[in-house]
Amino acid sequence: MPKNFNVFRQVVLGYVLIVGLSIGLITPIAQAEAPTDTLYSASATSQVVDGLNQIQRAEKIEAFYQQEGNLPLAQYSLDMVQAADADGIDWRLVPAIAINESTGGLDACKTASYNAFGYDGCHISFKSYPDAIARVTADLAGMIPATAKAYAGKTLTQKIDTYNPPYANENYERNVLWTMNKIAEADTSSFVATTTSGSQLAVN
């Protein structure tokens, strides 16, 4: 066998060995540094609005919903807060709309699935309540292209009036704002949240 071929073979084998060792060393490091997939992100306790983190705000919503009669959407309180933070709208708006449109899911649209928000006159169905929450929140934030002009850059009261105009319900804006204030004032000391803390509800 030619001497040059033996040298070439040794070089190739050495290269393969070095690459193999490099991959073996780098892969575990990369895996160790990769973020872990937890039920709720760290932002649930670090993202503060109105002096409250996401879990604390979700507990406010859930407390109000429970005080109003163990309403179906209570278990989706954290979904509403996280969607609001992600899209940049008031965290109390969607849960307040749900109260005024369907008593927090108790009287959800009969002609559309998972639509507890009176969305599009109950003509649109969703695959789940989290899906509905994400869509309604994005719409109110002006992030849906078809309706962006109606909501983007608008004040809170303008968003409410667009969602359900005064000519259709002259008290709607006042009722939603009242509900938002009640959510903010909700006492969370008398219950253990069903979804925000992962434990079972225990209303005193």
Shape: globular
For the biggest sheet, the summary is: none
| CATH T-level fold name of the largest domain | Lysozyme
Radius of gyration: 26 Å
The overall number of domains is 2
- Tell me the helix content: 40-55%
Low-pLDDT stretches are 19-40, 196-204
The appropriate CATH architecture of the largest domain is Orthogonal Bundle
List keywords for this structure.
single chain, 204 residues, mainly alpha, Lysozyme, 2 domains, 9 helices
Describe what this molecule looks like in 3D:
By secondary structure, this protein is an all-alpha fold. It has 2 domains: 34 residues; 143 residues, Lysozyme. It is 53% helix and 0% strand. The protein has 9 helices and no strands. It is globular and about 40 Å long. It starts with a helix and ends in a 19-residue tail after the last helix.
Compact overview of the structure:
With 204 residues, this protein is mostly helical. Helix content is 53%, strand content 0%.
List the helices and strands and how they pair.
Elements: H1 3-33, H2 43-46, H3 54-67, H4 77-87, H5 93-102, H6 129-140, H7 148-151, H8 156-163, H9 172-185
